[in-house]
Amino acid sequence: MPDNPKALTPSLRPGEGRLAHAPADHPPVKPAKVGVLISNLGTPDSPDYWPMRRYLSEFLSDQRVIDYPRWKWQPLLQLIILSKRPFSSGANYRKIWNEERGESPLMTITRDQTRALSEALAARYGDCVMVDFCMRYGNPSTASKVREMVAAGVEKLLFFPLYPHYAGATSATANDAVFRALMAEKRQPALRTVPEYFDHPAYIEALAGSVEAAWAKLERKPDMLLASYHGMPKRYLMAGDPYHCQCQKTTRLLRERLGWAERAIQTTFQSVFGPEEWLQPYTVKHVAELARAGKKRIAVIAPAFSADCIETLEEIQGEIQEAFLHAGGEEFTYIPCLNDAPAHIAALSQVIEANLAGWLD
After folding, report:
1. Confidence (pTM)
2. Is the dihedral of CA 186, 190, 196, 200 positive or negative?
3. Do residues 153 and 34 make contact, with C-beta atoms less than 8 angstroms apart?
4. Contact by Cβ (8 Å): 297, 262
5. ∠ Cα 132 186 39 (to 5°)
6. Is 137 helix (H, G, I), strand (E, B) or coil?
7. Residue at 188 is within a domain
8. What whole-number distance in Å separates Cα of residue 261 and Cα of residue 265?
9. 82-96 helix and 49-60 helix, angle to the nearest 10 degrees
10. Full pLDDT tens readout for the chain, 361 residues
11. Residue 242, domain extent
């Protein structure tokens, strides 16, 4: 608990929600809180055509994601790509859709992560911290959650893009969204954004624990572990985006923590989009090459994803697994994302607590 939680809270008239020294017609004032708002990529509201199209249009119109000139890209996107892709993407989402809750797995897992983090931070700080989540694309939007937090009395806001590695197309665009949201607020809270945590010891420990748990369940150990990260155009790296280097460091730290030989883990990149060259090796091609080279049993982990989503549940366990088996592979093991595992929540809590220093102690 903080030494003096009440120091965060203005003096209110009991039961009135008004400052003790304020006149009777003063608008109600909420007790001051610190907000922690975690952000993930996003999800369509349903896998049907129009919700899918709205989601893809918002996502693919973001110039941090696709940085082609708008006059060239938007006609191609709106008239050609979005006339077809919502059908194929919707079909892929249907394969993994959480029918019981009526939402995507990413939404389910992010909500569970938020609940677990809220409980962990309440145990540490009491009720002066408000924890919630938003999505960069789709619902709940960043702007709507910032509005809710301000209305609830949040005067200091910690914004946490839930990406271990920094990239302009992930962390930066999430931060852009919260900056824009604050432009609409009369009373802006103080804001901090959480930086990447790709080399945080607790994050590496959580990854290693998930690998060790997976290995313990297998009768025959894989010949190779692939750390498959979401890809990006190679020119982003050449322009100074640190994502590629951070991914390589995570793989190295994971290997060192496991005590494995250098070639026991390899870094690859997935989810290639468009005609230009992306970061290589491409996961879908590399698994086939491994199978043809005699690596008949492999495992894949996705360290860049904080929660299982379409890229892991459908792409890795669908397209990438099929490429491996079709090329002669025999056993394919996917190691799930850290999701709401206790070790992951503990790691995220440590990151949050470090970034709350000075606001809460």
Report:
1. 0.91
2. negative
3. no
4. no
5. 25
6. strand
7. no
8. 8
9. 110
10. 444 444 444 433 434 455 566 676 656 667 789 999 999 999 999 999 999 999 999 999 999 999 999 999 999 999 999 999 999 999 999 999 999 999 999 999 999 999 999 999 999 999 999 999 999 999 999 999 999 999 999 999 999 999 999 999 999 999 999 999 999 999 999 999 999 999 999 999 999 999 999 999 999 999 999 999 999 999 999 999 999 999 999 999 999 999 999 899 999 999 998 889 999 999 999 999 999 999 999 999 999 999 999 999 999 999 999 999 999 999 999 999 999 999 999 999 999 999 999 999 8
11. 201-335
b or e along 22-60 (b: 16 or more beta carbons within 10 Å of the residue's beta carbon)? beeeeeebeebbbbbbbbbbbbbbbbeeebbbbbbbbbb
213 located within any domain: yes
Q: Which residue's structure tokens are 């509201």?
A: 45
Token reading at 8: 């965060």
For residue 294, being part of any structural domain is answered with yes
**Based on the structure, what is the number of domains in the chain?**
1
The separation between CA 341 and the C-alpha centre of its own chain, rounded to angstroms, equals 15
Give the strand order in the sheet containing 154-161.
129-138, 33-43, 154-161, 190-193
CATH code, 311? 3.40.50.1400
The end-to-end CA distance of the chain, in Å, is 8
Does residue 353 lie in a domain region? no
Q: Where are the alpha helices (DSSP H) in 37-188?
A: 49-60, 70-76, 82-96, 105-125, 142-151, 173-183
